[in-house]
């Protein structure tokens, strides 16, 4: 059963979705309303480090923390998603102690504790939908939804996240009855990698 659209849910690309921007992605929906929707792809780490993107932040010097490709919109912008037990006034609360922000001052404060890197993800770009666009994509079967999970966001092997969620979700997938879901969850995004 699909979870209703709203912030704090995962959009899981259906195996039939072939748009290369979103094929085999898991997106955290950070905002959804009459003006449209905004989310970040949580399972596409890049080879770019946060130090390369923010060389002016001394606390990040020497960090090998990878930046994620958040989506095809405004790929020259950096968004920070982080988990903290303390309420954040200058950031956008998404769900369960997870916040979205882009404020370098807040990032520096968060990173005073070296362990906090495990509770932070940086994204280049984001995924966005105009009013009604995401709802139309849901009707065509492009996306599955379920409540977002902080452990999946910050602790999982991101390369395996899409397949892991599909296998455990119990969703009725728009697949052929004679094709088990495992055939889809193990397929590479690029078929030439077979």
Question: Which helices and strands occur, and which strands form pairs?
Answer:
Blueprint: E1 9-13, E2 26-33, E3 36-41, E4 45-49, H1 50-53, E5 66-69, E6 73-83, E7 92-95, E8 98-101, H2 104-110, E9 120-129, H3 133-139, E10 143-147, H4 150-154, H5 161-169, H6 181-185
Parallel strand pairs: 5-9
Antiparallel strand pairs: 1-2, 1-10, 2-3, 3-9, 4-5, 6-8, 6-9, 7-8
Q: Keywords for this structure?
A:
194 residues; alpha+beta; VC0467-like; 10-stranded mixed sheet; 6 helices; 19% helix
What does this protein structure show overall?
- The chain has 194 residues and is of the alpha+beta class.
- The protein contains 6 helices and 10 strands, in the order E-E-E-E-H-E-E-E-E-H-E-H-E-H-H-H.
- Strands 1, 2, 3, 4, 5, 6, 7, 8, 9 and 10 form a 10-stranded mixed β-sheet that branches.
- A hairpin with a 2-residue loop joins strand 2 and strand 3.
- It is globular.
Q: In summary, what is this structure?
A:
With 194 residues, this protein is α+β, with helices and mostly antiparallel strands. It is built from six helices and ten strands.
CATH superfamily: VC0467-like
CATH architecture: 3-Layer(aba) Sandwich
User: Element order, helices and strands?
Assistant: EEEEHEEEEHEHEHHH
* Count of DSSP H/I helices: 6
User: Care to count the β-strands?
Assistant: 10
Shape designation:
globular
* Span of the ends, CA to CA: 32 Å
- Please summarize the sheet with the most strands: 10 strands, mixed
Strand content: 25-35%
Rg calculated over all Cα atoms: 17 Å
| Low-confidence sequence ranges | none
CATH level-1 class: Alpha Beta
Number of domains: 1
Q: What is CATH's topology name?
A: VC0467-like
| Helix percentage | 10-25%
Mean pLDDT over all positions: 83
Structural class by secondary-structure content: alpha+beta
């Amino acid at each position: 059963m699909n979870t209703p659209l709203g912030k704090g849910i995962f959009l899981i690309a259906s195996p039939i979705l072939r748009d290369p921007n979103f094929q085999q992605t898991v997106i955290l929906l950070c905002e959804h309303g009459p003006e449209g929707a905004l989310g970040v792809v949580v399972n596409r780490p890049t080879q770019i480090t946060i130090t390369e993107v923010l060389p002016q932040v001394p606390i990040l010097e020497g960090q090998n923390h990878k930046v994620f490709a958040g989506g095809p919109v405004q790929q020259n912008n950096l968004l920070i998603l982080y988990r903290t037990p303390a309420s954040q006034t200058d950031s956008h609360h998404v769900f369960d102690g997870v916040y979205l922000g882009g404020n370098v001052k807040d990032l520096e404060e968060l990173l005073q504790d070296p362990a906090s890197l495990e509770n932070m993800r940086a994204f280049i770009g984001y995924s966005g939908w105009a009013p009604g666009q995401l709802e139309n994509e849901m009707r065509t079967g492009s996306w599955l939804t379920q409540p977002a999970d902080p452990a999946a966001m910050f602790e999982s092997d991101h390369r395996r996240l899409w397949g892991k969620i599909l296998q455990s979700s119990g969703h009725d997938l728009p697949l052929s009855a004679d094709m088990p879901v495992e055939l889809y969850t193990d397929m590479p995004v690029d078929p030439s990698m077979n």
